[in-house]
UniProtKB/TrEMBL annotation:
The lineage of its organism: Bacteria, Pseudomonadati, Pseudomonadota, Alphaproteobacteria, Rhodobacterales. The chain crosses the membrane at residues 46-71. It comes from the Bacteria. Residues 47-97 form the Lipopolysaccharide assembly protein A domain. Residues 76-110 form a coiled coil. This is Putative integral membrane protein. Keywords: Cell membrane, Coiled coil, Membrane, Transmembrane, Transmembrane helix. It comes from Tropicibacter naphthalenivorans.
Amino acid sequence: MRYIRYAFLAALAIVLVTVALANRQVVTLNTLPDGLAGFPGMGMFAFSVELPLFLVIFAGILAGLLIGFVWEWLREHKFRAEAARKQGEVKKLERELKKTQVERDKDKDEVLAILDNAS
């Protein structure tokens, strides 16, 4: 299984390097379109940067992955909270059971109490 993972990572690295080499052209990345940047008060949000195209592509993929991970983490919060609540309830019931068993076995012989717990 380890070799399959290494082979997959090697193939992925080859594909990423090939995409990077094929997209080395410098592009201008603007935060706002030219028409919108001309509106009063919007100029402070308008800036541009020149980057190689492969960096823009990889940054878009990375941003999409991060947004997806955060979205799923937030979506699954209710399931994690429910599991934690049920785990707390199980621990409480286990404590109650031990307390009940101790009370039940307090007048018994120790050997009989151990045998009852083993079965």
